Amino acid sequence: MPIIINLDVMLAKRKMQSNELAEKIGITTANLSILKTGKAKAIRFSTLEAICKELDCQPGDILEYNQ
Amino acid sequence: MVKQISNILHIMLLVFQIFIFFLTIGEIIHFAEKFDKIHNDYFFGIHLSESDTPLTHIIVFCITILVMSLLFYLLNLFRKVILDFRKEFVFTEKNGKQLRKIAFGLIIIGLTILTVFLIFFPYKTNYEISNANDNTIRWVYNLGLFVGKLTSLLFPIFIPALFFMLISKLIKEGNIIKTENDLTI
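Predict the joint structure of the above. Result:
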């Protein structure tokens, strides 16, 4: 899929653990892992909003389009 | 509600499967016992008499056993699908594939019956209406009998086959939607 998730990059920048973020945004670590590995088919606006809020970033920092 | 319906359907299928099993065994025993003096035999509405050769009887017997075995296998597959429904695993790829198999199995059974019917129908029908003098009456009677018998034989097989195919397609589509939903974070 040409959409790349840069969540691990943002997590590294913010020096935050995956399970910590999962707990803060209210999703399971398994689901966050699906999102990180690019296996997810879609992302809800509410999830994106929560991630952006916790990581203090823009959606474009997490999602990237690559041809 | 789905659980109760699945339970009832499961029991019905199990009973039907046992019935088919004993019918097959009964058919084999009947054939083995009266092998040397077969007078009457029926294959899905086609009557075989002593005027037919023993080879015809043997072929019809073998086809009957094959059709019954296939029906037994298809019932078993359907029972497994119903068991999955009972556990609330409805939209799975496996269920879609099994329902598709059932549909194709039913089509094979239908085609087998159709083939045997087309082979045996002409001389069986002429034998039945040999008293009719007028050619037109004979022709119209034959056509009516042909269409009527064919419809009554094939409708109960092809309609469920199409139904199973449709359900399998729905389950396949449902599985795609379910996967997408599961992978929406």
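Helices of chain A lie at 7-13, 18-25, 29-36, 45-55, 59-62.
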